[in-house]
């Protein structure tokens, strides 16, 4: 049986997402939305006091309106994990077209993204929020998909739907919801659509272990490959060791004042003693060990999402 919140870190990130707090950068996130023909310019929505689904909450919400029409719907089990955000968007675009055709649909932007990914060694979390609107009234839902995996196989998945209003509470169909459409089968439909038990964990079409192996090969010593082209970040991987070979000066500058990158102030400091690991859809870079509060040995870390570009030959 899956635990809804498998780790303390995962608990913290999920709570932040429900509270609509922007996540830190760089991190693993996705802003995948339907094709440009279906996507409209972002809109700032200010719900009226007492509207359905929002209660007295009148905080402006940045949204990306989506045309409610059926799109080719491919279940998550048929997608690579990096496409799960797009899959959730596609599901709600179809749901709105078939079950809530008189309401307009928008994806809510949080921290600049319509879908946030929390990536750990044995868990992936995908958070997205949707807004159904009709005649000045709103129904706002937060979707949290929690996926567990072991190696290249997903061992299970659970999806949680919360109603966002003056208070956050688990979604169950209420009489007022029929104003927006038929939500009676939403939970069952979404649970079936996101069922991933015993499916392969793939990243851009590759088994996760193959993707990690390809990255280790592409970034082995002497390959001189950039993880990010602009601003430039170039590094080498050997075993579990990391060596930064080239880094744009912007990583060390912050509004004219100095800052550190993995606790270093210059490139020479980044030549040895660093490490890395893969966590789900991310690579995590670690600083040299240092002694923290209570004489605890710690490492500062920065994570970057794995992209199609770094997997290319």
Descriptive notes:
This protein folds into two domains: 8-201, no CATH class; 206-311, no CATH class. The protein is of the alpha+beta class and 313 residues long. A hairpin with a 2-residue loop joins strand 15 and strand 16. The chain has helices spanning 8-18, 84-99, 186-193, 208-218, 308-311; strands at 29-30, 43-45, 61-66, 104-108, 115-119, 123-134, 137-150, 153-164, 168-170, 202-203, 206-207, 226-228, 233-238, 241-247, 253-254, 257-258, 274-279, 282-286, 290-291, 297-298, 301-305. It is elongated. The protein starts with 7 loop residues before the first helix and ends with a helix. The strands form five sheets. Strands 1, 2, 3, 4, 5, 6, 7, 8 and 9 form a nine-stranded antiparallel beta sheet that branches. Strands 12-13-14-17-18-21 form a six-stranded antiparallel beta sheet. A two-stranded antiparallel sheet has the order 10-11.
Classify the helix fraction into a percent range.
Answer: 10-25%
Structural class: alpha+beta
How many whole angstroms does the radius of gyration measure? 21 Å
User: Could you name the ranges where pLDDT drops below 50 across 5 or more consecutive residues?
Assistant: 1-37
H/E series: HEEEHEEEEEEHEEHEEEEEEEEEEH
**Alpha carbon gap, first and last residue:** 39 Å
What summary fits the major beta sheet?
9 strands, antiparallel
According to DSSP, the number of beta strands is 21
Q: What is the helix tally?
A: 5
| Arithmetic mean pLDDT | 85
Percent of residues in beta strands: 25-35%
Name the shape in a single word: elongated
Q: Assembly state here?
A: single chain
- The domain count comes to 2
